[in-house]
Structures are given as structure tokens and as C-alpha cells.
Design brief:
By secondary structure, the chain is mainly α. The chain has helices spanning 28-41, 53-56, 64-68, 71-81, 97-107, 112-117, 119-128, 136-139, 141-151, 164-181, 222-230, 251-259, 263-275, 280-306, 309-337, and strands at residues 15-21, 46-52, 88-92, 156-159, 190-193.
């Protein structure tokens, strides 16, 4: 896993939209995959972060409390890692009525067949084993995402390559709406691809997942971090310290690549491990020290933030009010394009 300190971003001003479903506290996968990038982006662009509680309900409608209980957890995670509400608009999806209304209008421009062909949707349907019992809200997720992106006139969307079909579908909707209006009512977006591969789970069997419980949360205790690192998958053939070991597929080294501040030191550890003479206990101790150092201040800030939930609500309310003003303007233009602005 390679880290890149600079982003390849076009020179022209862009508006950035990103966000997370409020289905649980955020974890190290979120941190290395998107949160660090957002901290940098907020100093260079106008950035909106959406707490996507409505989209969280698309596969949690039977347990809405799971989403409701995690809204402030997600906001606290944002602030704890360094996202600044004075530089980034943090808003709540369900409190921006224009998003739901835009979703309904856009739904008339997309067929069921097209939604079912979306590779991202197909993969998620298979992974969740919905069969034909697919919640309608889940199937129309790409339409909802198009509403989010266009409502804030976002032009640059940080995503992994697995999300590219979602942006393609957004741009299809933009083009169809503009064709109906015979005007550039909406603007197309483009991806800002992450250079960071997905962080694997501690057991090495899959990606980190809030629902699968194979993660290290940003608010994890010292004991939880220690337990997770000790359980990490390494090289099963590296039985004795003096045996040569494999770095590839070794979760401990994947995490060292992602989080250790001294990449030269990590390279030396890899050489030593490959040659033999370096035990898994030692590499796990090094990783644990690294993660404890990274997460201790985040955990402390997070605890303080959650102790004052009124402040979190205030920040979210202020950002949402700003987001509503902008999205309402886009909604008026879309309704005009459909000939629905009679008064």
C-alpha cells in the first residue's frame, strides 16, 4: 500500500462533495481511505460533507435506530480527526428536503433495467444476498446519490474505482435533464480517484466493514487496539523467527505501510522479515505502538465532543441550513426544467 502526500487535482476551482452513511462510527479504513484526504481538500476547495442518514436506511429500514444513533458519532469522528466546520460544510441528508424531491424527479429519467445493470449496485445486492427482496430505496441508491451531487453543484467527487459507475449514472441524469431543459441546468462531475487501496480487515479476509465487526474504530480503546493487532493475520508459513516471511498479504505490513510515519524504517523491516530473523510479535508491537500513538488524541477529542452533544447538533444544524439554501436553488431550476414552477 502506497501513500501519496500530494493530490493530482486540476487547477480550476472545484466544489467537492463527499460523505458517509450513518450506520456506525468510522474506522481506520475511513481514515486512511478518505478522512485524511478531506482534511487536505478543505484547505483548497469548497467542500461539503454529507451525513447520509437516508441512504443508511436503504438497507437498515428494519432497524432505523441503528442509523439515528450514529449520526452524532459520525460528526464527532469528522471533528476529532481535524475536519473544520469553518472550512467544510457538514450537513444532514434527511434535513435537506430538496434531496428527496430531486431524487423523485430524477427517478423519472432512469429505468429499472439501467439501475440493475449498475455494477456497483449489482455487487452490493450480491454481497447482501437480497435476491429479489431488494428494498426499492437500495435499488434507487444511484439516483439518490445523483441528487446529492447535483444539489451542491459538486464537480469533484473523491471515490474509489468501485464507485465510478455511480458517477457515470449521475452524469447520464445530468445530460438527460439538460437535454429536456435545452439549457445547462446541472453540471457534470468527475472523480478524484483515491491512490490508496482498500484497507483489509484485521483477519485479512475482506475489507474493513462496520457491519462485519472486523475493524479498528477511531474511538477504539487501548485494549481494543491491542487485541485487534494481536489477532492480525500475518504469514501462516512464518512459524519460526528465523524462517523467511512473506510481506505480501501480511496484514501487519499493510497497516505499517498505511500508518507508520517512517516509510524507510518500514522498508527495512520488510527486508529483515523476508530474510528471516524478525518475528511476528515484534512487528505487531511496532504496529501497535504506531496505532496507539495515532488514535489516542483522536479518541480523546472524540470523547470530549460526544460529551457535548448540543455542540455537535449546533454544528450540524448550521451546516445543514447552509446546504439547504444552496440545494433549494438547484431544486428551483430543476422544477423549472420540468415546467413545474407555476408559483
Amino acid at each position: 500500500m502506497q501513500q501519496h502526500s500530494s493530490l493530482s487535482i486540476p487547477a480550476q476551482p472545484d466544489k467537492v462533495l463527499t460523505g458517509d452513511r450513518a450506520t456506525g462510527p468510522l474506522h481506520l479504513g475511513h481514515y486512511v481511505g478518505s478522512l485524511k484526504q478531506r482534511i487536505e481538500l478543505q484547505h483548497r476547495f469548497e467542500q461539503t460533507i454529507l451525513v447520509a442518514d437516508m441512504q443508511g436506511l436503504t438497507d437498515n429500514g428494519h432497524q432505523p435506530q441503528k442509523v439515528a444513533a450514529n449520526i452524532l458519532n459520525v460528526v464527532a469522528d469528522y471533528l476529532a480527526v481535524g475536519i473544520d466546520p469553518a472550512k467544510t460544510t457538514i450537513c444532514l441528508q434527511s434535513s435537506i428536503p430538496a434531496l428527496a424531491e430531486l431524487t423523485m424527479y430524477y427517478a423519472n429519467l432512469v429505468s429499472i433495467a439501467r439501475l440493475e445493470r449498475n455494477p456497483t449496485v449489482k455487487n452490493e445486492i450480491n454481497s447482501k444476498a437480497f435476491g429479489r427482496s431488494i428494498p426499492a430505496g437500495f435499488l434507487t441508491y444511484p439516483i439518490s446519490q445523483a441528487a446529492d451531487i447535483t444539489a451542491f453543484k459538486a464537480t469533484l467527487i473523491p471515490v474509489g474505482d468501485d464507485q465510478l459507475p455511480m458517477l457515470e449514472q449521475t452524469n447520464e441524469i445530468v445530460r438527460k435533464l439538460n437535454q429536456i431543459a435545452q439549457d445547462e441546468v446541472l453540471v457534470e462531475c468527475r472523480p478524484l480517484l483515491s491512490h490508496m487501496t482498500r484497507l483489509p480487515s484485521v483477519d485479512g479476509k475482506s475489507k474493513m466493514s462496520k457491519t462485519m465487526g472486523n475493524t479498528i474504530m477511531l474511538g477504539s480503546s487501548e485494549q481494543d487496539i491491542s487485541k485487534a493487532v494481536k489477532a492480525m493475520y500475518t504469514d501462516p508459513t512464518h512459524i519460526n523467527i528465523n524462517d523467511p516471511g512473506r510481506v505480501e498479504g501480511n496484514v501487519v505490513f499493510t497497516y505499517l505501510d498505511a500508518f507508520h510515519p517512517d516509510l524507510q524504517y518500514v522498508a527495512e523491516l520488510k527486508s529483515h522479515y523476508r530474510a528471516g530473523g524478525l518475528g511476528d510479535g515484534k512487528t505487531k508491537t511496532i504496529l501497535e505502538e504506531c496505532l496507539q500513538s495515532l488514535l489516542a488524541p483522536i479518541r480523546e477529542r472524540r470523547a470530549l465532543l460526544l460529551a457535548d452533544k448540543a455542540q455537535l447538533v449546533s454544528i450540524l444544524k448550521e451546516g445543514t441550513a447552509k446546504a439547504r439554501e444552496e440545494s433549494d436553488g438547484v431544486l428551483r431550476r430543476v422544477k423549472t426544467a420540468f415546467g413545474l414552477n407555476l408559483f
